[in-house]
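Worked problem 6 (solution included).
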Amino acid sequence: CTLALAPARDDWVAWRDDEELGPPGSHGWAELPGSQQFRRMDWEDEQEVDRPRNGYRFHHPRATHYKLGDGPQKIEVWQPVPDSASDGAVGANFRGALYSLYRWNLSNVTVLLVNAGWGDAGNATICRGDAPCPNVILLHDTQLPLRVASKNALRLDERLDGYLKENMRRLQDDFPNLAHYQYNHNWSWRAMPLLTDLRLLRFNKTALEALGEPLPPPHGDRPSWTWDDFASLVCNISRTYGAGTGLNVMPQWNEDFKLSMLMAQNRGLYLLKKGKCGLRDPGFEKVLALWKRMVHGQCMRPGPWVPESLSFEMGGSSPDGTLRATSAEEKNLSAHETWPGFAFVSGIEDSPVGRCGADVLPAGSRADCDWLDSLNGSSATLPECERLMREMDGDTVNFRSGKCEVLRCSKRSFASERASEDWEVHSIYCSEILYADMPGNYTFLGGWGVMIPRSGEDGACWSADSGIVRATATGTADSRECDDEERMREELRIDEGWRIMLELTDGAKPWILQMNTRRSAKSLPPLVSLIEKPPFLEERWQPLIREARRAIPSQYPANPLVEHDRIWEEKPLRHMLLQALSGNSTEREAVEDGCEALDEIVRDCNRSAWETDVHCVNLLDGLQGCRAGEYFPHFPPGERQILRADACSPCMPGTYRPERSVNSSCIKCGPGRYSSQQGATECTKCPAGEAQGLQGATSCEICKVEDGEAPMAGGTKCGSCAANYWLDRQNYSCKQCPSGMSSPAKSTSEDFCQQSTEYQAAGAALVILSFFMAFIIHRMLFSCVPISDVHIESNALVVVTSVPHRLLKRPWGPVLVTLRRTGHPLLDGFSFRVAYKSKCSLHLIDETGEKLNMRADASMGELHIPLPYSCTAAGDKFWPSWVSLTIVAIPWTLACGLTTRGVEQMRWWLIGATCVWVVVFAALWYQHRARFRATPMACRLRGFRWKLEQANPEPRSCERGPSRAVSMGQVHDLFEFFQDFILDRNMYYVSSNILTPITKHDELSYAELVGPRPVEWFVSHYWGQEFKDFVLSLRRHSEHEALATGRSWKDIAFWICSLSNNQWKLDAELGKMDPEMGVESSESKCDPERSSFYLSLTSKGCKGTCMIMDQEALPLKRSWCLFEVFHTCLLTGQRDDFAGLLLCTPTGVLQHGGTGVDTAVTIAQRLSSLRLEDATASRNEDKRKIDDCVRCRRGGFAEMNRFVRGCIKDALHRVHESFENDFGNLVCALEHVPESEESETSQEAVTPFLVAGSASASLVAEQTRVERRGAAMAPPRPGEQPDPGVSHDFTSTNV
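Solution. The predicted structure is:
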């Protein structure tokens, strides 16, 4: 029945969160099974008779916590075991122990017993911030390492030492040996054992005997008892009695982990080895194969498994070979009261009662049996009698109809005496269920212990609002906030926790015994003194005692794992089992995959990625890395590198760490700073008057001010003031002397600062240096300007610069400049007066101020402005450059004088100024050189040079003479690329401004640079002719030759002296040097016959000589042309295949009739009075040698003159014949024009006849055509806009 009594403060009250469930007797409370066997306490006799026993014998399955008393002092205890009928003995004995301690003081204390659950007991945040801080926590031994690593577990060594002094015995000596492994961490006791967790193996004796199998030890003489033997026996039972009947596994979490580790440990394997998975071994592969064999053979059943135990839910194989789940019928086998096979259990369970044989007498009158109780009447049925036997903790029932007796006997009571016929003896000793030794050497050992939580960091302070000791948010506390009352409360909390711990583990009290032996799965209390006393001397406890001697934890012998909960949650061993059982991979692959997961769980902190690595979380505050002021040292080899709270060490004095990190050391304080305490996050600067020059200092040195010492170099040392400084004793600092004054070293007052002549001399040197460097830079800026072009413009010679020349528009007097590197003999090295035209152009003038009118073309060079003109006539806009020079130099000098103090600083100013000027000079020099590289001609030359390198990457020298000809296409490409520079300029310009710069790098001829060709035609020409006429003349000849031979006009090869001769080795080209010996020739006075001209002209491949003619017949006025004509004359008479001398003009070749009559007549008029002996040369020596060659030949100059006149005579005949043919064709065309088209006759066709006058019509037409072609051939000068009405196409054929 339920008694509706009001809550009393002297009894336990059940709560579910904030809902009050009432005291014992209220709705929901129930009597705990087996509580009748609890020792009766003296305070139970004092309770009222009509009230139920308190929470010691009753429990509430829905309760989350129990409350006792209502006083101001809070006592809180956490226990994780569910308050169920099977495990309620734990909570009941907690309630009994706490009631025994505090029943006389319930008006001053409030006792809370919290059913925290396993998760909160091991992992919940405690004693920090607003988290609760209980006095005692009961938790599993695998959860304790995490509490220790998080600095949540108080060291008990000091309390145990006090116990030793008070009781003259060591409390820990009563613990089993393995308790030192489970509860002693880092050489300190952190908890005391309270409950024991073992694994036992039960089996059905009758089933084995029926199969003829020997019983396992210690009951039979089975020769071998390994896990392989066990698996064979289990599967044999299943094959005989049905699928799954061989083995029944406990329906508990992680039972597969525990049993697999048992098998591994029996094979000499361990969970971890040297910090990594220790199961990578063929032995564990055999363990997986063993499980696979039992599961696939349906040799086992899981019983009422929870979902986490999936590894045992698998049934046998289906017909197609795949695995199938255990059927419902197979699962129902676990509900049978009897079963034929083996079962794993966690302690001595209530074994089935068996009827003893006829040879066993009723034990009612025997002296070695204790009578406990009896039943009479209708209630005395056998099941009811057995129930009473279990409640009374008996083991035997004497039964007959209507009466039974309950006794507690020992096994030896069942002797060979015969029982009476009307009495039946039923006893657990006659049951067919026995306990076997675990196969192998070991069985599983676990345990639960009680610990006292530690309140955060040492020195943490009391929080008045929650009533427990707190740490600050960072895990540390400010000791200044702590007072005596707070420390007293913290000590009181720990004292009460120690009282509770001693009460629970006191062997003289019933709590620890009843917690272990009154649960449904009974186990041994973890005290050696209790196991040596009754009831453990009875036979039924021997299996438990026997297995306890062989039991070890699953992670043994590795250090207790902080990550054990993660291993149980992530279940790497379960994944191994499932992977191996599924058949998708081999056992080795399953082991490797599972070990990889296990290695990841237990791996060390990755220092290189500590900010994101979950293994680098500080267990003290849950943040990454060690806190500021701490470091993470390297641990000895083999020791775990995990970031436990106690793994971070505070920085020693003299060092600091400003931020969170996992660095293995702290930073030493630099010079001028120190730290005197541990855990510093920064170093303190030395006070005024003190200094420290060492790293890692814990204090600073006081400077001797009276001796003139003061902190120097930022407080890194004590020293005297340097020269030009004096000691300010008030501020402990050295101050600088005023400007222009200096002082000796170790000056102790400002009176030591005096004027210095050396300082003044250094200042003067600085001024001189400034003006000198400014002058040098000025000369660089104003003395030399790159030239982009020199040409005639409006009958005046103009010099154009590529950058502003900086000459004033209105200088103070005449300005004289010098031109250099233009490549023109009339310009280089000469000084000219100049007049301002624009900011980038100048007129060259004579002494009278008239503009020079002379032809001197150039597109390169330098314009030099000498002194004093660069200072007086050059500048910026309206003021000369000397003004700028002064503006730059004077402020620099003034700034130096105003900011320097003493001679030493002035010296540094000199050094610094010199360095600055050198850097500026280098930068301006680079800019100056870059200006010359940026002229239009320089840029165009680089572009053409790149084009040539693409066409002929590796130009090579070849033999001079006939092998160095160039094709018409190569000549034409040169002209087209530079035509806007060449304009109406001649070969002198092309050679000096284009050919020489292009060939300078390789020092080869232009022909070798572009790719030489064998000579076909020798070209004789005068360099003073316009280059565009020269190119057009050769093209007219090439077109005629191409028409005759069927080739492209671009492929016709010519030997041209300016392009074929190596301009860098002219002496050899002209025959002055012997080309074979490399010395001057003296064998013959006719040296020109050794020249490249002669060799090319007289070669077999040369078809003839093309002389480029103009209206003045200038080529025949040059000695070298005379030499060429002379040998042409000789070759004409010697070779039939030699074409002789062809006179080429821009309108065509005279001998081919391709030119006008007027042109031919003009040339003939010039040649009629020409005397070749009057030809000139640039060098008199060349003329003399050529004239001598001509005179040496038969006929001499007279024969030469006749030969030239003969050539022009033949040309005139050809022109005449061509004219007559053209004239006749024109007349015929006019006579046959239809009348309807007469009005449309071209004005251009009749104009020659209307304006002919004394000249022939064809002569006028030809002159018009030549003039138009000449206008079309003239491109605009640089900077001029081309006429849109005029075509500048140099490739069109104007025939």
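Discussion: The longest helix spans residues 1196-1231.
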